[in-house]
Predict the 3D structure of the following.
Amino acid sequence: MSHIETIWAAKMAKPHGQTKAVVYTRERWVTPDQDFIDVDFLTPVAATDRPLWVMFHGLEGSSQSHYAKAFARYAQDNSLNFCVPHFRGCSGELNLAPRAYHSGDFEEIDWILRRLKAQHAGDVYAVGISLGGNALMRWAGEMGSDASQVVKGAVSICSPLDLYASGIHIGRGLNRHIYTPMFLRTMKPRALQKLAQFPSLFDPSKMLASRDLYEFDNVFTAPLHGFQNTEDYWTRASAKPHLANIQIPALSINALNDPFIPQDSLPEVGKVGSHVKLWQPKHGGHVGFAADCFKSFPGHLQTLPQVVGEFFNDGVVPRG
């Protein structure tokens, strides 16, 4: 059931029960290290004093991911501003620097959020999906009370907050045959493009021989971003040990049947800070949560945006 819920949401369900196009306007920002990122803003833009929701996408995601379109539709229906900053290399054009992106890139999160806050009159709220949620929560824990100067609240959705546990889990069993090849199918060619930019950056034979994310990160992601190896990367980048330091309203959403994330690795009540709330329903898969699949086939993806909206507006966390 967990695999069906995950795949159905990504391949079948609609962002909303009705058909309405999601249109973005793209801005290109020069980064402090003279690279660039592309930020897609929902068009038309709502009034400048309306809240801005910022979404950090998941591994190999973008503003065109099913979950991004679902949140964009919610923003349209509720007169919210909405944007998706792309991690480096994920907007359709290879970035310039000898680096890509990673699960604990809280410095990049900080720069992006502070720039958005400086140019937006309304309150800013942040949502992170999977990898993006871990990086967001890692940022919130790192910033502590300073985070409140930038955002009013943060939500992580289906995020591998214990990267080591989730990284090992996705490389085993059925996951190894469904999801691992799906990710590596785009990650390996992009790594080769990066190697063409910077010859000798890594060993291409070892990268191409990698059979799972552990081996790929050991050759590519970890060394390119200052980590010794996969173990060092997954340990230092994980947000879970930093949840107790979060000082802004935060919600961590994890379905108990998420095929990417083992249940025993999820954060527990009493082991996170008082500002962090947990919602861990029995079903949902990995960024699934499709609704009305039988009532109005093939269903829609508005459950997660609605939950996030209720949390940001009233601090409400679903039961069960």
